[in-house]
Design a protein that fits this description.
- Helix content is 45%, strand content 6%.
- Strands 1-5 form a two-stranded antiparallel sheet.
Length: 466
């Protein structure tokens, strides 16, 4: 890409073996590629998306501006550059080295990771370079492909990845694969979950449901970003100034999970105490009222919060796959199918789900199965008296919102369902619109003659959500 040329002095030599620059082991490139994928989904832009999604509250420094929807092109530059250079470019480098050895095991994994990053880029930015990306020699100024076309090309890429991983050809990357240790079956399932995710993004719910049926089948198949205490390898929220610049005070999600709130989503079948405590810490006023809600960064032997220094970060998960089945099952098969899948997710939560074991104390969580009568008019979850299918959709979308805390999936869901009555309606911080997208990096705007003009601002709805 053009930005790669502009940043040549920064990235030059990152993928070269100083002893044999044209023959670096592709497995080493895979690890670098996966770290780039983590950077795209975590880090600064995840915090910005979280502020815009009612997950976090920016209170000082630049995050106070983001709270008021003030953001410029430089806000998103590092994520944009990292996505294209460390992921899309590295997938090409891996292919150049692995294909002559017929190592389809490795190329399949690399294609899934590329799809993961590229799908998130187009979801967050809209029209983006894809078909001509990562080929600076032939396309120094790559075109911006329409968002729907990018999604279609990513679906083809994931199908190719599944074919590669199913071929039985190649060698196991083992520990070079920091996500799934080379497990082909798990990577195939993850690819199907991603296909389902991206079909959902374009509102092709039938194909999304069919792909999710082939997706991740258990929690140990989830793709997670590992973290440790080493400098630069910590969970995205607990690292750096985030803990002082961002809280969740008055954030919409705290009101949903706090049993003292008027918006608490708990009921006789649902107890959110454990999930609330896993997500947040807080102080108590003299009258016992909670205050100063902060995302939970505790990292001790008996309290390890969702953003603990060593906590893994969710990338492609079992719970996402279950909730895709619930939403798309409802939309395409009807209430009974959607409810059955939602109850499978609730059954998972009722075992402690994705909570850290330190928060799975008996009595602090309860997710009993819902019945169809709960969504009937005047039922447990249908006090407004709307159609039962809409009441169930509202519950599923709310569960997705809560489950995806801190992930860009929550931001993308809000944009996808904003026009629907059952969509999650978070408060708007200022003005009368929610942000819909990120702004193209300043490097891309300045270096690529094909960059859109005028540059779409954050409130411009992307093609798939028009």
């Amino acid at each position: 890409m053009s930005l790669m040329a502009a940043c040549q002095s920064i990235v030059s030599g990152l993928s070269e073996d100083p002893n044999n620059p044209t023959d670096v082991a592709p497995e080493l490139l895979l690890t670098t590629m996966q770290l780039g994928d983590v950077a795209v989904h975590e880090g600064h832009t995840a915090r910005v998306a979280g502020i815009w999604s009612g997950y976090f509250t920016g209170i000082q420094q630049q995050y106070k501006d983001f709270q008021l929807y003030n953001a410029g092109a430089s806000t998103f530059s590092l994520t944009w550059i990292g996505g294209y250079w460390l992921v899309l470019e590295h997938e090409k480098l891996i292919g150049d080295r692995a294909l002559p050895m017929n190592n389809r095991w490795l190329t399949g994994i690399a294609k899934v990771i590329k799809a993961h990053t590229a799908g998130t880029i187009t979801a967050c930015w809209g029209d983006v370079p894809y078909s001509q990306a990562s080929d600076n020699e032939h396309y120094p100024d790559p075109v911006f492909d329409p968002q729907k076309e990018v999604y279609a090309q990513i679906q083809t890429l994931l199908s190719d990845a599944i074919d590669d991983l199913s071929s039985g050809q190649g060698s196991d990357p083992k520990d070079a694969d920091i996500f799934l240790k080379g497990n082909q079956a798990k990577w195939i399932a993850a690819a199907h979950t991603l296909k389902a995710r991206f079909y959902m993004d374009v509102k092709d719910y039938e194909n999304a449901y069919n792909e999710a049926l082939l997706g991740i089948k258990s929690a140990d198949g989830s793709v997670l970003a590992p973290h440790n205490t080493a400098f630069g390898s910590q969970n995205f929220y607990s690292y750096g100034r985030s803990v002082t610049d961002i809280t969740s005070q008055d954030a919409y999600i705290t009101r949903l999970l706090d049993s003292d709130s008027d918006l608490y989503r708990g009921n006789i079948k649902t107890n959110e105490t454990a999930r609330f405590n896993y997500y947040f810490t807080y102080s108590l006023l003299p009258n016992g009222k909670k205050t100063i809600y902060r995302p939970n960064t505790l990292n001790t032997s008996n309290t390890k919060g969702i953003f603990a220094t060593t906590a893994s970060f969710s990338l492609i998960t079992f719970q996402e796959n279950l909730l895709i089945l619930a939403e798309t099952g409802l939309r395409t098969k009807g209430l009974a199918t959607g409810l059955a899948h939602l109850n499978t997710h609730r059954q998972f939560l009722n075992t402690g789900g994705y909570l850290d074991p330190t928060y799975k104390a008996t009595g602090n969580f309860r997710y009993e199965p819902y019945a169809a009568s709960d969504f009937a008019i005047n039922g447990l979850l249908n006090k407004p008296g709307i159609a039962p299918e809409q009441a169930l959709l509202k519950e599923i979308l709310l569960e997705r919102y809560v489950t995806f805390f801190g992930q860009k999936l929550g931001f993308n869901d809000l944009s996808r369902t904003q026009k629907e009555t059952a969509g999650v309606k978070i408060p708007i911080n200022i003005g009368d619109k929610l942000p819909q997208r990120f702004i193209y990096s300043v490097e891309e705007i300045n270096a690529n003659s094909n960059a859109p003009f005028p540059i779409p601002g954050i409130f411009k709805v992307t093609q798939v959500n028009e």
